[in-house]
């Protein structure tokens, strides 16, 4: 862990000619000290710079690379701390290997915890994905941490107010440190850290959490705890907000609460995450309460260090001592990347691996490779997601078919047997923030576990909901919000809304329908109703006839969607009729094993409604060119290069 005990004089003598001090460290006066706060967030078990789904090295990810920045930055600043902001236990096949294959017994070490111990973290908070494998797994994993892990708004027992709750783990921690000032003298400082997770975990992981814990609103919890921390003598309070940068105004239970959280008196800085973005960056330009140029939320310094180890978030604080108190007099904020994309679309690594970090989990890395390479069946056609956002797609359809197969079996002997079963599935790997290589691409032939993980990225569990025909239509209207409204007869309009995540673009199998892009969206990207009379979904048919809006249907889906994830009509947690014990990945594996050889074929059950003389543009991975002639139901042609390594294509409507 970081120790603030190195004198400035010794520091300068030992590094002269090799390392340039940060200006805050170089210019700190006798009563001033420079404190550098380093942040990782959303590591998702990415220790090695390796893509287990593609089974090849990847220079854009890995704590082993981020650790090189940590090492350099500890040398740049007289005083430093390293903090993780959550979502470290789940998110790649190494996490699944530990959870499903090796397991966690008392005394076992989780590899990401081992790696974090090696790097030397001062603290971490919980992210929402920490709960994916259950509370027992979580607590056994945390037991190996050489650093405190905190979370203030998840409680085992409610006490009437947040500060009276019996929290799952410590709500906050106060780190007593010695900080070195500009004259090389040391002084005590108390740094308070308090952690938060989106309260939506109660929906997203209901099967693990319901009846076991409760989650409170982030801002209300902070307002209760921060005065208590101040009373205990904190000189600084840093919020570890595993919550994105969203609206400035607080609303009860909001998922992305970092901006109103920053406004709370007594909070001095905010480490944020969950969004899988970088702050400060242009991604947050123009948002209320957000100053990208100065790297602040509500005037408080803030950082978000990307995801999967892609960046290290940095907050530099110039502190000034007045009496026995420290105050922030200046700050700077940045996020250091571990790689850069070149003009020719190639990636250049900006740092090397730290060998000790790799060595600490080499055995688990090797075991994970063996785990993901295990074949479970065959496919007689390629499975890819390059066109999953613009046409019916085999990689999404195989997920849908497996879900329908599973739920049909589960409905037997229940009161719902006989109701028609539809299946909703979305593409998870479809470019976007993941980059131009972030697509499913499974070749014809053997299908291994790594391929199933590639088809279905998250360890969601199977669910079934009972809905009306009207809710089926509105579910699809919600999905169709991914498309921009276009003007009929106009060429080369941008098709996709970049603010709409691909995992909320559900395709519904079991019905046929068209999407009329000339109509406005009924819902905004967050799922809020904005055009009540809008009708993008046209020619919606079931069994060859117009869909009966009053009929009842079962929809096979996952726990995230069924529990309200994405705010879909008919899927707000109150329509669930079946909660499966199996993950959707396991369902896909079982389906492939039973069939032996699968024959994935997109049947074009959804298409765009014709708009003569109209064309749209969309960006996808460059390898899409290998498959553009094989997409049914839509006319696709190459249209040059897109930004950031993507390729651009045109659809004639």
UniProtKB/TrEMBL annotation:
It is found in: Cell envelope. Gene3D superfamilies: 3.60.21.10, 5'-Nucleotidase, C-terminal domain. Its main location: other. Residues 1-28 form the signal peptide. It catalyses: a nucleoside 2',3'-cyclic phosphate + H2O = a nucleoside 3'-phosphate + H(+); a ribonucleoside 3'-phosphate + H2O = a ribonucleoside + phosphate. InterPro entries: 5'-Nucleotdase_C (IPR008334), 5'-Nucleotdase_C_sf (IPR036907), 5'-Nucleotdase_CS (IPR006146), 5_nucleotidase/apyrase (IPR006179), Calcineurin-like_PHP (IPR004843), CpdB_N (IPR041827), Metallo-depent_PP-like (IPR029052), TAT_signal (IPR006311). Its cofactor is a divalent metal cation. SUPFAM superfamilies: 5'-nucleotidase (syn. UDP-sugar hydrolase), C-terminal domain, Metallo-dependent phosphatases. This is 2',3'-cyclic-nucleotide 2'-phosphodiesterase / 3'-nucleotidase. It comes from Shimia sagamensis.
């Amino acid at each position: 862990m970081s120790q603030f005990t190195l004198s400035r004089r010794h520091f300068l003598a030992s590094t002269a000619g090799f390392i340039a001090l940060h200006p805050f460290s170089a210019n700190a006066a006798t009563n001033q000290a420079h404190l550098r706060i380093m942040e990782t967030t959303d590591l998702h078990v990415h220790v090695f710079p390796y893509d287990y789904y593609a089974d090849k090295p990847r220079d854009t990810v890995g704590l082993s690379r981020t650790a090189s920045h940590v090492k350099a930055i500890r040398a740049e600043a007289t005083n430093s701390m390293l903090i993780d902001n959550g979502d470290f236990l789940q998110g790649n096949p190494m996490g699944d290997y530990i959870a499903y294959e090796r397991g966690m017994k008392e005394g076992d070490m989780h590899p990401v915890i081992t790696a974090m111990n090696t790097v030397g973290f001062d603290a971490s908070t919980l992210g929402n994905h920490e709960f994916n494998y259950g509370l027992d797994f979580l607590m056994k994993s945390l037991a190996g941490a050489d650093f405190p892990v905190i979370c203030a708004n998840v409680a085992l027992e409610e006490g009437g107010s947040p500060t009276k709750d019996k929290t799952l783990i410590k709500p906050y921690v106060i780190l007593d440190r010695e900080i070195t000032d500009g004259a090389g003298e040391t002084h005590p400082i108390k740094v308070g850290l308090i952690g938060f997770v989106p309260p939506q975990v109660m929906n997203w992981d209901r099967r693990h959490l319901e009846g076991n814990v409760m989650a409170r609103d982030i801002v209300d919890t902070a307002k209760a705890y921060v005065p208590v921390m101040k009373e205990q003598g904190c000189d600084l309070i840093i919020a570890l907000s595993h919550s994105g940068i969203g609206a400035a105004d607080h609303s009860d239970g909001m998922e992305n609460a970092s901006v109103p959280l920053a406004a709370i008196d007594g909070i001095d800085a905010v480490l944020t995450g969950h969004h899988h973005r970088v702050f400060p960056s242009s991604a947050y330009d123009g948002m209320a309460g957000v100053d990208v140029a100065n790297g602040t939320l509500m005037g408080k310094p803030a950082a978000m260090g990307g995801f999967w180890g892609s960046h290290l978030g940095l907050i530099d604080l110039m502190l000034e001592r007045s009496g026995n108190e420290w105050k922030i007099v200046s700050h700077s904020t940045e996020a250091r990347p571990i790689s850069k994309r070149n003009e020719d679309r190639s990636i250049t690594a900006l740092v090397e691996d730290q060998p000790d970090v790799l060595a600490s989990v080499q055995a688990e890395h090797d075991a994970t490779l063996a785990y993901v390479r295990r074949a479970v069946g065959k496919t007689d056609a390629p499975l890819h997601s390059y066109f999953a956002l613009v046409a019916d797609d085999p990689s999404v359809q195989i997920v849908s078919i497996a879900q329908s197969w599973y739920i049909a079996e589960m409905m037997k002997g229940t009161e719902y047997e006989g109701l028609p079963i539809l299946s909703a599935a979305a593409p998870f790997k479809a470019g976007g923030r993941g980059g131009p290589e972030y697509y499913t691409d499974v070749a014809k032939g053997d299908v291994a576990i790594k391929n199933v993980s590639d088809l279905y990225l998250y360890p969601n569990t199977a669910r079934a909901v009972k809905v009306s025909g009207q809710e089926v239509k509105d579910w699809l209207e919600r999905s169709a919000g991914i498309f921009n409204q276009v003007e009929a007869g106009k060429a080369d309009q941008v098709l996709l809304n970049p603010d709409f995540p691909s995992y909320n673009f559900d395709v519904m199998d079991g019905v046929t329908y068209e999407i009329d892009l000339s109509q406005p969206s009924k819902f905004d990207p967050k799922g809020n109703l904005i055009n009540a009379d809008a009708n993008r979904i046209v020619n919606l048919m079931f069994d060859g006839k117009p869909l009966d809006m009053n009929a009842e249907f079962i929809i096979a889906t996952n726990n995230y969607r069924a529990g309200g994830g994405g705010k879909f009509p008919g899927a707000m947690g109150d329509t669930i009729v079946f909660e499966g014990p199996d993950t959707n990945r396991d369902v896909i594996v079982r389906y492939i094993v039973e069939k032996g050889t699968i024959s994935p074929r997109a049947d074009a059950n959804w298409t765009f409604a014709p708009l003569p003389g109209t064309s749209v543009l969309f960006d996808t991975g460059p390898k899409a060119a290998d498959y553009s002639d094989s997409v049914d139901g839509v006319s696709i042609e190459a249209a040059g290069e897109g930004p950031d390594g993507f390729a651009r294509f045109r659809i004639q409507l």
